[in-house]
Amino acid sequence: IKTVEPNTIKTTCAYCGVGCGITATVHDVDKRLITVQGDEQHPSNFGRLCSKGTALADTLTLDDRLLSPMYKGEKISWDRAIKETADQFNTIIQQHGPDAVAFYISGQLLTEDYYVANKLMKGFIGSSNIDTNSRLCMASPTVAHKRAFGSDTVPGCYDDFDHAELIVLTGSNTAWCHPIIFQRIKKAKENNPALKVVVIDPRETETCAIADLHLPIQSGTDAFLFNGLLAQLSKAQKLDLDYIDQNVEGFVDTLSSAIESASDIRNVADICGLSEADIHTFYEWFSGTNKVISAYSQGINQSSSGTDKVNAIINVHLATGRIGKIGAGPFSLTGQPNAMGGREVGGLANQLAAHMDFTEDNINRLSRFWQSDVVSSSPGLKAVDLFDAIEDGRVKAVWIMATSPVDSLPNANKVKTALEKCQFVAVSDCMQHTDTTQYAHMLLPALGWGEKDGTVTNSERRISRQRAVLPAPGEAKSDWWIITQVAKAMGFEKSFPYQSAHEIFKEHTQLSAFENTLDIDDSTLTKRDFNLSALTTLNQQQYHKLTPIQWPVTSESPKGTTRMFEDGYYFTPSGKAQMITVVPRQPKAPLSKEYPLILNTGRIRDQWHTMSRTALAPQLNNHKAEPFVELHPADATRHNIADGELVLASTAYGEMIARADVNKGQKPGHIFIPMHWTEQLSSKGRVGALVNPATDPLSGQPESKHTPAMVKPY
Ligand code: SF4
C-alpha cells in the first residue's frame, strides 16, 4: 500500500479497458475542483494517461445531472421510487412470470454493482434476462475463450507487449481506442527496433503510424486470413507439434478445414482484398518469430462470425505453442473499464456468476451459496433479442442502468419503439437528459465517476479500486445501493443485507472460491479459472487499501497471476486446449445496388460512448466537432460528394446527416462513421439507427462493422 498525500486519492479511469490508474487531488470539494494525473505506481499505465483520462477533472460539472428520483417527470422521494419500482416489477412477475422483466446494464458499472444486479435477476427473480452493453463489445471473445480454453480467460498481460518481437493488431485502432497500450508498443519499438508491428484493418488508421506492414483487409474476411496462416504454418513445418501433442485437442480437424478454406494464398488475397506479397510477408514474419502477440478488438468481435474469427486467431497461437509464454499470446483488448468485471459476476445473459456456465452442478452450487431455490436454470435474452422481446411485448418491464441503448444498439429506432411500448421502464443514470432517459417512467439518480466506490477489472485481468474522490451530489446513490433497496422492497431482504461495497466484494470473492477445487474423486467439483480465494478475508480497511492485482488470487498465487496457461493446463474436462474448426463466413447482409457501400462504425480519439461525460470537457470537443463520414476519394467521385459537404448516409434501417471527410485512408467501398453522437447532441447524427441488427449466432454480438449503406449529397 503506497502512502499518498491526505487530499490525493488513487483511483482508475472511467473509460477504456486499459484501466489506467489515476491519482486525483481534491482542491475544493464544494466547487468539485480536482486535478488528475496518471498513477506512476499503477502497473497498467505507469503514470501515462491519454487525452480522455487527462480531461476527467473537467467533466465533473453538475449541469444536467440527475439529482433526485423522478417518476413520470415529477420529483419523488427515494422511498417512493424504490417502492414503485419494486411494486411494478413484482406485479408483472406475478401476472406474467419472471421472464417478463429484464435488466439491461453496462460495463460502466463497478463489479459490486454488477454483482448485486445479477444476483437479484438470476438468483431471486429467477430469470436470466439480464444483459449488458458488453454484449456489443466482448461477447465474441468470451465464447471463443470458453471454446478454446474451457474458460473466459485472457492468457497474457500488458507486460507481454514489452517483450514481443512481432505484434499483430487486428481490428483495433489501438492509437485511438486503447492509447496507453499504443504508447507502450511505440516505446517497445523504440527500445527494440527489431520489433515488427502488423496492422490488419480496412482503414489506414492512426495506428498505422507504427506499422511495418498494414493489411487493408476487406471487411469481414479475417477468418480466411488466419485460416490461411494456419495452413501456411503447417506447410512450412512451423507448427509446435510437441506442444500440440501435450496440450491441444482438435488439431487434425481444424488444420484440414483451414487447408480446405484457405491453403491457396492467391485465393486468400482475392477474398481479403490484399496483395499476395503482403500476405506472404505477414505469414513469414509470423512463422519466423516466436514471441508474437495477436491483439484484437471490435473489428474482429463485432461480426456475425466474431466468435469464429477469435478462434481462428487463437488456433494459430495454440498450434505454434505461442501462448502462456512471455511476449506471446492472443490478446483481447476490451472496450470498457469493467467489461471484464461484468463477465466475472455473470452480467451476460448466457452465463452465471463467477464464470460458471448453466450446468446443473453450477445451478445447484449457486442455489446453495445464495440459499435460493429459484436460481435461473437457462440463459436469458441477449441484448438485441432482449429489445426485440420488449418491442413485441414478451418483456413488459426493463431496468436500464448506466447506458443508452437508444443510441448504441443496432437498429436503434426499433429500440425507441420498444421503450415507447414497454409497460414500465426504469433508468438509473447520472444524467437527466439522454436519448434513453426520455423513455423512462422512473429515473433513479446514480453516482458518476469520482463519486463511486468499488472495483473494476481491466483487459489484463487486473482488479483495481475505483475510489470516491467527491461526495455524492444531491440525492444520487451508488448503483449497488439502489439495486439492494429495490431487492429488499421486492421481498428479498435477507439476501441483500449490504451496507458497503466491501461487503459485496467479499461475497463475490467467497463465491469465486466456493467449491472451486480440482477433485478427481468427485465429478461435481471442477476447477474454475476465476478464483479470488486469497482475498476472501479482506477486511474493510484492507479493501479500502487494495492495490491492483491480477486474478486468479489464490494460496498458490497470493500476489495474483501475471500470465495464464504457463503450465499448459486449460480449464477443459481433459485439461487440454481446444483448436476449433473455423469455416469462414462472409458478413450476413450482402451489398446491393441500393446500398453498395460497407458502413463501419467505431470510436474516435477524444470521445467516449455517447459523450455524456467527454462532451463536458471543451478540449475534447475540439478534436472532431460533429458527426462525419469518412469515404475514399473514388467513392466520393462516384457519389458526387465533395470533401466537407453535408451528406445523407442511409441503410435499410435508418438515415443520418454528417459531414463528408474524403480520405485516402478509407478502403474503397467502405465508409466509416463514429458511434458517439446522440440525438441530444446532433438531431440527425445518430449512427446506431443505421446499423443492421445481424448478430453472431454463438455470442449474440451485433455486426456493427458491416452494414450495406449509401451516401449522397444532402
Ligand atoms: Fe487509460 Fe483508456 Fe483512460 Fe485513456 S481512456 S487514460 S487509455 S483507461
Automatic annotation (TrEMBL):
<dbReference type="GO" id="GO:0016491">
    <property type="term" value="F:oxidoreductase activity"/>
</dbReference>
<dbReference type="GO" id="GO:0043546">
    <property type="term" value="F:molybdopterin cofactor binding"/>
</dbReference>
<comment type="similarity">
    <text>Belongs to the prokaryotic molybdopterin-containing oxidoreductase family. NasA/NapA/NarB subfamily.</text>
</comment>
<dbReference type="GO" id="GO:0045333">
    <property type="term" value="P:cellular respiration"/>
</dbReference>
<dbReference type="GO" id="GO:0042128">
    <property type="term" value="P:nitrate assimilation"/>
</dbReference>
<dbReference type="GO" id="GO:1990204">
    <property type="term" value="C:oxidoreductase complex"/>
</dbReference>
<feature type="domain" description="4Fe-4S Mo/W bis-MGD-type">
    <location>
        <begin position="6"/>
        <end position="64"/>
    </location>
</feature>
<keyword id="KW-0500">Molybdenum</keyword>
<keyword id="KW-0408">Iron</keyword>
<dbReference type="GO" id="GO:0046872">
    <property type="term" value="F:metal ion binding"/>
</dbReference>
<keyword id="KW-0560">Oxidoreductase</keyword>
<keyword id="KW-0411">Iron-sulfur</keyword>
<dbReference type="GO" id="GO:0016020">
    <property type="term" value="C:membrane"/>
</dbReference>
<keyword id="KW-0479">Metal-binding</keyword>
<keyword id="KW-0004">4Fe-4S</keyword>
<protein>
    <submittedName>
        <fullName>Molybdopterin-dependent oxidoreductase</fullName>
    </submittedName>
</protein>
<dbReference type="GO" id="GO:0051539">
    <property type="term" value="F:4 iron, 4 sulfur cluster binding"/>
</dbReference>
<keyword id="KW-0534">Nitrate assimilation</keyword>
